[in-house]
């Protein structure tokens, strides 16, 4: 089953073309990274996955998510857990008093708060407890957002997206703002999730590309310039071209990093 199947997809904002002739396939179980510089079109591509924007009409265009062309947007959001940094800001701004338990529970209504009119069954509560245990964040259950570190809140937001048991999770620059230890710890958590569902990582940080990611999609100036196996694409030539810098890349124990520039 393909999660994403795009053929000849073009996107424009105010008549300005931003994504050009996108052909992309991501299969279930095929953990994928979408890698590109700032402004290359990564977030726009992600908005296409979630149906927050639509392609420019063309007879040649095919756009299917989980094999379907048309989706009820709320139904689709249950299948695709999407984690953006915007979610993080929304929670810390709007609901600093929410606990880890409540952040997770809010996933059932995709809301940024818990409201009186929302009804939760014992099954909802059980699911939240199960997710907190799976992610090993029970210690955050009763902690308030205002008392959480960036990494702690981000883990609760991941928990929130898991209550629907999405088939795939899309993570947009998930380790922004985390120190090295928190980053490594967070990536270990994502690896655990990757044993159960497909991860699509959107980033410009090589360090975020964990071992289980097999497919790389390189995007530059709104075009997918390469799509294929990680080992074939994460090399000096491809990455220097993508980031417009002479980069020397190294891989150690299955993890990639920029060794030097120039
Ligand atoms: N709402 C919008 N209206 C007009 N242009 C936009 C809009 N959003 C993005 N763009 C433009 O589309 C292009 C791609 O932007 P996009 O945010 O998708 O890139 P990105 O790779 O996610 O960048 P970053 O890594 O900085 O988040 C950029 O030129 C950007 O200026």
Automatic annotation (TrEMBL):
Gene3D superfamilies according to UniProt: P-loop containing nucleotide triphosphate hydrolases
Domain called ABC transporter: residue spans: 4-246
Pfam family membership, one: ABC_tran
Keywords: ATP-binding, Hydrolase, Nucleotide-binding, Transport
Signal peptide: none
EC number annotated for this UniProt entry: 3.6.3.-
Coiled-coil regions listed: none
Uppermost EC category: hydrolase
Any GO MF annotation of the entry: ATP binding
Family that this chain belongs to: Belongs to the ABC transporter superfamily.
Full protein name: ABC transporter ATP-binding protein YlmA
Record organism: Sulfurospirillum diekertiae
Taxonomic path: Bacteria, Pseudomonadati, Campylobacterota, Epsilonproteobacteria, Campylobacterales
């Amino acid at each position: 089953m393909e999660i994403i199947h795009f053929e000849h997809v073009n996107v424009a904002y105010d008549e300005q073309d931003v994504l050009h002739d996108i052909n992309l396939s991501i299969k279930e179980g095929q953990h994928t990274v979408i890698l590109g510089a700032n402004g290359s079109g990564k977030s726009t591509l992600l908005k296409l996955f979630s149906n927050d924007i639509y392609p420019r009409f063309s007879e040649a265009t095919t756009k299917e998510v989980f094999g379907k062309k048309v989706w009820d947007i709320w139904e689709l959001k249950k299948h695709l857990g999407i984690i953006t940094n915007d979610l993080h800001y929304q929670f810390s701004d709007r609901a600093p008093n929410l606990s880890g338990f409540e952040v997770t529970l809010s996933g059932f209504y995709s809301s940024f708060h818990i409201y009186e009119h929302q009804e939760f069954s014992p099954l909802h509560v059980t699911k939240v407890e199960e997710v907190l245990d799976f992610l090993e964040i029970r210690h955050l259950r009763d902690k308030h957002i205002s008392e959480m570190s960036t990494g702690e809140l981000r883990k609760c937001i991941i928990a929130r997206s898991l209550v629907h048991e999405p088939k795939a999770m899309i993570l947009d620059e998930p380790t922004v703002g985390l120190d090295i230890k928190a980053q490594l710890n967070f990536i270990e958590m994502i690896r655990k999730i990757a044993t159960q569902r497909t991860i699509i990582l959107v980033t410009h940080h090589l360090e975020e590309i964990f071992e289980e990611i097999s497919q790389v999609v390189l995007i530059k100036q709104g075009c997918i310039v390469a799509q294929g196996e990680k080992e074939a694409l994460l090399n000096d030539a491809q990455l220097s071209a993508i980031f417009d810098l002479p980069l020397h890349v190294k891989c150690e124990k299955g993890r990639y990093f920029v060794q030097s520039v120039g």
